[in-house]
Amino acid sequence: MKESAIETIRKIKENYINHRSAFVPGAQLLNILVEFGANPADINEMKDISEQLFNDPTLSFRRSRNGRFCYDLENECCYRTEFQPF
Q: Gene3D superfamilies attached here (predicted)?
């Protein structure tokens, strides 16, 4: 029987408490997001958007973009309101 997202999150939290760090593999995170109602097609779009990020000056292996976002739950959308440089 497949583990529920809540149980998976509980184990991640327990691991963090015990080891002060936690790694969540992408496939596991995808399963959690889908169980909470995310659309897999939308997640694939996020992958494309992530390829357009700037190099992170603090960690050479990471790319990111800082900013403020508005999460409009009523209209089921999210958008950037303000860019914030490092």
A: q2cbj1_9rhob like domain
